[in-house]
Amino acid sequence: MSTPASPTAVADTVENAKATPEKEQPYGALGLKPDEYARITEILGRRPTSGELAMYSVMWSEHCSYKSSKIYLRQFGQKVTPEMTKNLMVGMGENAGVVDIGEGWAVTFKVESHNHPSYIEPFQGAATGVGGIVRDIISMGARPVAVMDQLRFGKIDDPDTARVVHGVVSGISFYGNCLGLPNIGGETYFDPVYQGNPLVNALSVGVLRHEDLHLANASGAGNKVVLFGARTGGDGIGGASILASDSFDSTGPTKRPAVQVGDPFAEKVLIECCLELYRDGLVQGIQDLGAAGISCATSELASNGDGGMHVELSHVLLRDPSLTPEEILMSESQERMMAVVEPEKLDAFLAVTAKWDVETSVLGEVTDTGRLVIDWHGEEIVNVDPRTVAVDGPVYERPVAYPTWIDALNADTAAVLPRPESSEDVLAQFLSLVASPNLASKNWITDQYDYYVLGNTALSFPDDGGMIRVDEESGLGFAIATDANGRYCQLDPSQGAKLALAEAYRNVAVSGAVPAAVTDCLNFGSPENPEVMWQFSQAVEGLSDACLELGIPVTGGNVSFYNQTGDTPIFPTPVVGVLGVIDDVARRVPSGWQDEGHNIYLLGTTQEEFDGSAWAATVHGHLGGRPPAVDLEAEKTLAGLLHAASQQSLLASAHDLSDGGLAQAVAESVMRFGVGARVWLGEVMQRDGVDLTTALFSESTGRVIVSVPREDDVRFQALCDVRGYPVLRIGVTDGTALEIQDVFTIEAEDLRARSAATLPEHFGATAV
């Protein structure tokens, strides 16, 4: 152990706070409102010390306390059935949800935002977003096995977009690759609405045996409180309260010191150290230090325990000895964990951290006082009920107002937009979609990630979902997919949230897995805007209702407010992640066909649904109307059908239809392995009563294209008939070109070249 903090900083003690009630404090600069400050003084019966003020400011921030969203988020816990929770080992309220996947294995997963730091300092903002979500997974007792990212950037040709894209992608790849974790999926969209406020959501997944589960609580008076990992520095101070809980003004990137700095090699060592501590039974409770740092770890551990906690803050090992006690409490320096250790196991604990060369300091112990007491060189600077800091913060019922502009937006339907009149026009529109920023190949990004490291990746980019093998002997694994469509949500946030869930659910189902659980990251504008709160309330209601109907629980997630520049909020963007279980990854189903001579089937029916579509956006620059309908009962039937077909090894490929409709799905299936297809749409048009443009570009839900070997045709069709799901044979895999019969033909290599060129044209050669 190394030298702790020096006593150079003069602390504001509890005694001093009692003696100087008139002292003015900078609560506003720390993100607290006057009434919140008044409530703190009421709770304490005096003014807070500077240390207490620091703790309350970060823990009562929007980012940590969910004070504007709590009243809505309760629906996720209320709209459940016993069937939904039968495999849920840990739900909302812990660092991450945990799902029993069978054979004694469990999977823990969660998605969180790191939006504002990634605009100010894109590289470190994105890198530490990955590091933070991985530590949430470690803290559950799991080994992290994969990461994913969900990215939203501004207009692709805006000069600042390149700055953000290069930094964010480099930060994600640097941190994840150094950790040796495969990046197995995600999404990237470009839209001017995210210009001054990109979204960088990071997801991590871990696996554990049931008996290795750990929770964040400090129980047992006399147990030691131990801080281990990287030293505490001045980076990230006030990140949760100042950066994540406020919006940007028009002056651009500022607040750089509030962005954390990450060291993935330190985190890699920390992962292995934690896993050995778990293996040897040396940890009674554990919490990662992310947002709000020591303030969060001490107050949450104490709140979740059965007593209190006493800590000597001067024992914290520092990178910067000039830090004040308040700064130490607020610092969000990365790669740190806090453990509760039984006294008789402390020497063994310290031996393990020493073996891994992880710096460690014993800060204090668990008490039976019910109070969180923090000293600075023997002087008391914090004495609070920890629940008032971590649990019983403000709960707001913000004003909600139906948007004044939404009726006009909904009335402006894409159905009246002009459609192509010739085969040449159809081809031109098809090619513009394939090469558009949101549908073009994301290889420029994904080639910078390692997605096969660890040797257990069964599916990854550009398949619809990622898949990881958990057990080598049985082949047990999980699949995961994330989705969101901000354009749909702008038109109807409730329906948009349902559509995000339905698409992620479908993307898991096409892989051959059975959808089992949900995590979400809800990205919205300022909660102080009543119209934003209407959007948020609608999205949560829609998502919770849809989860109940599909029968899969929300295990946890994140709310990110204040995503706006000036007074202009982003589109509501609820990112939904769905986890699925597959009993043997050998039966996984890829998204593109690999062999000629297979029949191509379209599952589901097509309606005229262009509102919010990629066709409307790319061809016409249009957003208006109402998003596609979603039939969740049909989605369940479709998922069951796909699972049965994969179990019987009837499917050579399966790919969901979403952005860009059937045309984009067929193009991606051709580009996947370079095997062409002949497709005919006459029967689809006749059965569903739609024109060619609708058949190609509509974004109706509940649709999937599959390729089936000819010898399995009869069994596959019988499976569809038994389940009563609409199915039509629309083509055959053949040659090296995509032919839409009687419309156009284009070589697969030409398609691939057009799709692959878009991102490099704007961002240069890939750095690999």
UniProtKB/TrEMBL annotation:
<dbReference type="InterPro" id="IPR041609">
    <property type="entry name" value="PurL_linker"/>
</dbReference>
<dbReference type="Pfam" id="PF00586">
    <property type="entry name" value="AIRS"/>
</dbReference>
<dbReference type="InterPro" id="IPR036676">
    <property type="entry name" value="PurM-like_C_sf"/>
</dbReference>
<feature type="binding site">
    <location>
        <position position="66"/>
    </location>
    <ligand>
        <name>ATP</name>
    </ligand>
</feature>
<comment type="pathway">
    <text>Purine metabolism; IMP biosynthesis via de novo pathway; 5-amino-1-(5-phospho-D-ribosyl)imidazole from N(2)-formyl-N(1)-(5-phospho-D-ribosyl)glycinamide: step 1/2.</text>
</comment>
<keyword id="KW-0067">ATP-binding</keyword>
<feature type="binding site">
    <location>
        <position position="112"/>
    </location>
    <ligand>
        <name>Mg(2+) 1</name>
    </ligand>
</feature>
<comment type="subunit">
    <text>Monomer. Part of the FGAM synthase complex composed of 1 PurL, 1 PurQ and 2 PurS subunits.</text>
</comment>
<feature type="binding site">
    <location>
        <position position="520"/>
    </location>
    <ligand>
        <name>ATP</name>
    </ligand>
</feature>
<feature type="domain" description="PurM-like C-terminal">
    <location>
        <begin position="221"/>
        <end position="376"/>
    </location>
</feature>
<dbReference type="GO" id="GO:0006189">
    <property type="term" value="P:'de novo' IMP biosynthetic process"/>
</dbReference>
<feature type="binding site">
    <location>
        <begin position="332"/>
        <end position="334"/>
    </location>
    <ligand>
        <name>substrate</name>
    </ligand>
</feature>
<feature type="active site">
    <location>
        <position position="63"/>
    </location>
</feature>
<feature type="domain" description="PurM-like N-terminal">
    <location>
        <begin position="463"/>
        <end position="581"/>
    </location>
</feature>
<feature type="domain" description="Phosphoribosylformylglycinamidine synthase linker">
    <location>
        <begin position="23"/>
        <end position="67"/>
    </location>
</feature>
<feature type="binding site">
    <location>
        <position position="136"/>
    </location>
    <ligand>
        <name>Mg(2+) 2</name>
    </ligand>
</feature>
<feature type="binding site">
    <location>
        <position position="558"/>
    </location>
    <ligand>
        <name>Mg(2+) 1</name>
    </ligand>
</feature>
<dbReference type="Pfam" id="PF18072">
    <property type="entry name" value="FGAR-AT_linker"/>
</dbReference>
<comment type="function">
    <text>Part of the phosphoribosylformylglycinamidine synthase complex involved in the purines biosynthetic pathway. Catalyzes the ATP-dependent conversion of formylglycinamide ribonucleotide (FGAR) and glutamine to yield formylglycinamidine ribonucleotide (FGAM) and glutamate. The FGAM synthase complex is composed of three subunits. PurQ produces an ammonia molecule by converting glutamine to glutamate. PurL transfers the ammonia molecule to FGAR to form FGAM in an ATP-dependent manner.</text>
</comment>
<keyword id="KW-0479">Metal-binding</keyword>
<feature type="active site" description="Proton acceptor">
    <location>
        <position position="114"/>
    </location>
</feature>
<keyword id="KW-0963">Cytoplasm</keyword>
<feature type="binding site">
    <location>
        <position position="135"/>
    </location>
    <ligand>
        <name>substrate</name>
    </ligand>
</feature>
<dbReference type="InterPro" id="IPR010918">
    <property type="entry name" value="PurM-like_C_dom"/>
</dbReference>
<dbReference type="InterPro" id="IPR036921">
    <property type="entry name" value="PurM-like_N_sf"/>
</dbReference>
<feature type="region of interest" description="Disordered">
    <location>
        <begin position="1"/>
        <end position="22"/>
    </location>
</feature>
<keyword id="KW-0460">Magnesium</keyword>
<feature type="binding site">
    <location>
        <position position="557"/>
    </location>
    <ligand>
        <name>ATP</name>
    </ligand>
</feature>
<keyword id="KW-0547">Nucleotide-binding</keyword>
<comment type="similarity">
    <text>Belongs to the FGAMS family.</text>
</comment>
<dbReference type="Pfam" id="PF02769">
    <property type="entry name" value="AIRS_C"/>
</dbReference>
<keyword id="KW-0658">Purine biosynthesis</keyword>
<dbReference type="InterPro" id="IPR010074">
    <property type="entry name" value="PRibForGlyAmidine_synth_PurL"/>
</dbReference>
<dbReference type="GO" id="GO:0000287">
    <property type="term" value="F:magnesium ion binding"/>
</dbReference>
<feature type="binding site">
    <location>
        <position position="560"/>
    </location>
    <ligand>
        <name>substrate</name>
    </ligand>
</feature>
<protein>
    <recommendedName>
        <fullName>Phosphoribosylformylglycinamidine synthase subunit PurL</fullName>
        <ecNumber>6.3.5.3</ecNumber>
    </recommendedName>
</protein>
<dbReference type="InterPro" id="IPR016188">
    <property type="entry name" value="PurM-like_N"/>
</dbReference>
<dbReference type="GO" id="GO:0005737">
    <property type="term" value="C:cytoplasm"/>
</dbReference>
<feature type="binding site">
    <location>
        <position position="260"/>
    </location>
    <ligand>
        <name>substrate</name>
    </ligand>
</feature>
<feature type="domain" description="PurM-like N-terminal">
    <location>
        <begin position="93"/>
        <end position="207"/>
    </location>
</feature>
<dbReference type="GO" id="GO:0004642">
    <property type="term" value="F:phosphoribosylformylglycinamidine synthase activity"/>
</dbReference>
<dbReference type="GO" id="GO:0005524">
    <property type="term" value="F:ATP binding"/>
</dbReference>
